[in-house]
Amino acid sequence: MLYFCGMLRAAFEQLVKLEDAEWADAESRFKTISFVKDQLLTREGEIEPYFYFVKSGVHSMYYLSPDGDETILGFSFTGNFSGAYDSFSTQTPSRLYIQALTSGEAFAITYADMSYLFDRYKNFERWGRLFIQHILFGRGRREIEMLSTSAEERHKAFVARMPQELQQIPLRHIASYLNMTPETLSRLRAKR
Amino acid sequence: MLYFCGMLRAAFEQLVKLEDAEWADAESRFKTISFVKDQLLTREGEIEPYFYFVKSGVHSMYYLSPDGDETILGFSFTGNFSGAYDSFSTQTPSRLYIQALTSGEAFAITYADMSYLFDRYKNFERWGRLFIQHILFGRGRREIEMLSTSAEERHKAFVARMPQELQQIPLRHIASYLNMTPETLSRLRAKR
DNA sequence: TGTATTTCTTGATTTGTATCAAGGCACGCC
DNA sequence: GGCGTGCCTTGATACAAATCAAGAAATACA
C-alpha cells in the first residue's frame, strides 16, 4: 500500500480548496507518529494532545462505563481523521478512549498549531466548520439508520460497507459498535 | 415573559464576540415568524428554508419511520437555535420534521443570508464552527448518557434538568425522545 | 509440533420492554 | 352539566436480546 505525500492535503481539500502557501504552513505543523496494535492513544481523564489523520491502520473510539464494559462509538480507518475532538477542541479531560486496533502511522497536530491555523487562515476556519458538520451529519445518519432498521438489517448493511481492514478485527469490537453482545452478533451471522 | 432585543445577539456572543457593524449587518437579515401549536415548520423531503432562533415556545425535531412511528431526536426551547441544520446547510431534502409543540415566535434567516455572513465575516465563520461543535458535543454527551445509565436513571436525569416548558408537553413526546413507549415511561414514573 | 490463550459458537434460561387491551381521568364543547 | 375525545395508567402476554455456561475453533507462542 502506498501513501502519497498529497494524501493529507487531498483530505483537507475534500472540504475546502487551499492555497499553496497556507498548505505549506499547515503541513509543516504535522508530525508523523506511529502506533502499535492495542496501544491507547488517549485515556479517559486525559486531555487529547493531538488531532490525527490515519495514514495506515485502524483507530477505535470507545466509552468505558463505570461497570467496566466498553462501547465503541466509532472507527477511523486509513484516510480518516481521528481523535477525541471534544477533548481536543475544548482542552478538557476526555471521557473517551482512543485505541489502535492495528499497528500503523498517523499525522498528528497539536491544539496550539491547529488554533493557529484557525486564527490565521479563513480557509482553515471554514474547513473546521465543514469538518465538524461532516462528523455531525454522519452521526445523524447513523442515528436514523439505528431507528429505521432492525438489528439484522443494520448488521447486513454494516458488513456490506465494512472496509477490508475491519474484516480481521475481533467480532466483539463490531458487536460493541452495533450495541449488541458478541453472542447476539454471532447468532445473527449464523442465520444466513 | 420579556424578550429583549439583545436576546439574539447575546446568543451569538456566547460563542464569539461580534463587532457592532457586523452584528448590524447580521441582525437586518433575520425576520420574525410566528407559529402555532402542532404546526409543521419543515417536512421530510423539503429543503429547510430557514435557520431559526426560538424567541418563545418549543420546537421538536423528529424522524418518521416508514412504518409510521415518530422518534423525537431533540427539542428547542426558548433561547435555543432550531431547524434541520443538515438540510439547511447542504440544501438537500430533509429526512426530519420540525414541529412546533406550542405556539410562539422565532427569528429566521435564509441560507443565502447565512452563507453571506459566513463568507463575509470571519467571526461568523468561526461562530458556525463553534455552534456545530456545540451541537455535536451535546449529542455526544447524550449518547454516552444513553449507554451508561439504565432507562430509569436516564428518565430521572431527564426530569431533573427538564425545563419548565416541557412539563406541559404530552408524555408521549418525552417517551419518544427517551426511545421508549408511553406505557414504559408511565410505569417508570409510577415506580417512585 | 504441542500447548496455552483468545475468540467464536451454541444452548438454556432470565429479563426488560413492547404489544395488546381495557379502564380512568381530565379537559373542551355542545 | 353531561358527553366525547385525547391522554395517561394499569394489567396480561409475547418476544427479542442479555446473561450464564460450556465447548469448539482459531491463533499465538514456546
Main sheet summary of chain A: 4 strands, antiparallel
Spatial strand arrangement across the major sheet of chain A: 1-8-3-6
Estimate the global geometry of chain A from the Cα principal axes. globular
Number of strands of chain A: 8
Q: N-to-C terminal Cα separation of chain A, in Å?
A: 33 Å
Would you write up a description of this structure?
Two copies of one chain form a homodimer. Chain A is of the alpha+beta class. Chain A has eight helices and eight strands, in the order ααββββββαββααααα. A four-stranded antiparallel beta sheet of chain A has the order 1-8-3-6. A four-stranded antiparallel beta sheet of chain A has the order 2-7-4-5. The first copy, chain A, is globular, with a radius of gyration of 18 Å. The model of chain A has no long low-confidence stretch (mean pLDDT 90). Chain A binds a DNA duplex (30 and 30 nucleotides) through residues 151, 170-172, 180-184, 186-187, 189-190.
